[in-house]
């Protein structure tokens, strides 16, 4: 039995496999556990093995590559068009086996353990940041119901909350004061956790040479640099910087029909966490544009003369992403733009 393409539909404990020959005919249909899967693939020859890029796919991809297989991960949305009938695990596995053979399929690079570690750091940190923001908003809303207004921003709440708890003349019940004290404690604990995670991320950035080169780009700090490394590695999966910008969703969306091109706002596709980090970094650079290199400062001034500030921020974020790709993929250091000398 010769298998040309093997599609694996991943699960937590149960996996479904469908193998196709060179003519696209199903030659194997199998259901197995995780241990049985690795035992089966160790004794089978398949030219291609395809899986959807989901939880656990990177670990299994590395295990299959260690067995000598050509393993390729695909975004789930690109596999869905190959599902021709109703959904089942075997039908999904067959669609994966068909999709992996498409020459123009876009594949997801298998992440290393170091990349997964960085990705885990960022995901946990982001959850804590979101939780802290939720607690801040909840405290402000609870105080507003008691007639106490606190301006927006975590800094203002941190300053006002101790004074509110210490002011005995405020008409607050004892149970509500206990609640505020517990929420204040939760905010302090979350802040301590985030600070500790930031210290870990900064340490990882100092020990990574690629991160050191990335942090020389204006608006790119240790958090953004490590997040980019965790997501794309050395950037070799992208042929050019625009491809990375497109994947990150900071290029114009397009709706063209009848030969009439219509460009929309940014597509906002792909990795929204990275997109947010680069946009925030670009906004900070724009606020300090007078302190940037002359070439970059002039470019920003020219854009601000004819475009809205938010448009300029996104344009700068797009430029930063392309620069980051060049720094990573070409293994070069960042070179600040210079002013053109008129003759």
Give an account of the 3D structure.
The protein is an alpha/beta fold. The protein has three domains: 3-99, Nucleotidyltransferase, domain 5; 113-207; 209-329, no CATH class. Helices cover 55% and strands 12% of the residues. The chain has 13 helices and seven strands. It has a five-stranded mixed beta sheet with strand order 3-2-1-4-5. The protein has a two-stranded antiparallel ribbon with strand order 6-7. A hairpin with a 5-residue loop joins strand 2 and strand 3 (26-33). It starts with a strand and ends in a 14-residue tail after the last helix.
Radius of gyration: 26 Å
The gross shape turns out to be: globular
Secondary structure tally: strands: 7
The main sheet comes to:
5 strands, mixed
- Could you give the order of the helices and strands? EEEHEHEHHHHHHHHEEHHH
Number of helices: 13
List key phrases describing it.
343 residues; 5-stranded mixed sheet; two-stranded antiparallel sheet; 7 strands; 55% helix; globular
What topology does this entry show?
Blueprint: E1 3-9, E2 14-20, E3 26-33, H1 34-42, E4 46-52, H2 57-66, E5 71-74, H3 76-79, H4 89-99, H5 113-145, H6 154-166, H7 174-207, H8 209-214, H9 222-232, H10 241-248, E6 252-254, E7 263-266, H11 272-287, H12 294-304, H13 309-329
Parallel strand pairs: 1-4, 4-5
Antiparallel strand pairs: 1-2, 2-3, 6-7
Helix pairs in contact: 5-7, 5-9, 6-7, 7-9, 9-11, 10-13, 11-13
């Amino acid at each position: 039995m010769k298998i040309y393409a093997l599609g694996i539909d991943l699960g937590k404990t149960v996996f479904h496999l469908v193998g196709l020959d060179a003519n696209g005919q199903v030659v194997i249909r199998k259901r197995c556990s995780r241990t049985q899967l690795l035992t089966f693939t160790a004794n089978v020859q398949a030219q291609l093995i395809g899986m959807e890029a989901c939880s656990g796919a990177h670990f299994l991809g590395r295990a299959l590559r260690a067995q000598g297989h050509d393993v390729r991960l695909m975004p789930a949305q690109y596999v869905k068009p190959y599902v021709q009938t109703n959904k089942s695990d075997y039908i999904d596995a067959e669609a994966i086996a068909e999709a992996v053979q498409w020459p123009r399929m876009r594949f997801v690079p298998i992440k290393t353990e170091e990349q997964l570690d960085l990705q885990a750091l960022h995901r946990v940190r982001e959850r804590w940041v979101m939780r802290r923001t939720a607690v801040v908003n909840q405290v402000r809303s609870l105080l507003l119901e008691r007639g106490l207004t606190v301006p927006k921003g975590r800094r203002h709440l941190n300053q006002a909350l101790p004074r509110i708890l210490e002011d005995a003349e405020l008409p607050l019940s004892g149970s509500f004061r206990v609640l505020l004290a517990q929420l204040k404690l939760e905010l302090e604990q979350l802040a301590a956790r985030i600070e500790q995670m930031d210290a870990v991320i900064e340490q990882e950035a100092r020990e990574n040479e690629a991160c050191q080169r990335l942090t020389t780009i204006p608006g790119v700090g240790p958090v953004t640099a490590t997040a980019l490394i965790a997501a794309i590695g050395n950037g070799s999966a992208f042929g050019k910087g625009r491809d990375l910008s497109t994947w990150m969703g900071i290029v114009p969306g397009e709706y063209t029909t009848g030969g009439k091109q219509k460009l929309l706002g940014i597509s906002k596709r792909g990795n929204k966490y990275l997109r947010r980090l680069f946009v925030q970094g670009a906004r900070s650079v724009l606020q300090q544009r007078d302190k940037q290199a002359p070439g970059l400062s002039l470019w920003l001034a020219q854009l601000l003369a004819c475009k809205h500030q938010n448009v300029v921020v996104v344009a700068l974020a797009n430029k930063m992403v392309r620069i980051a790709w060049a720094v990573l993929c070409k293994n070069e250091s960042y070179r600040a733009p210079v002013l053109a000398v008129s003759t």
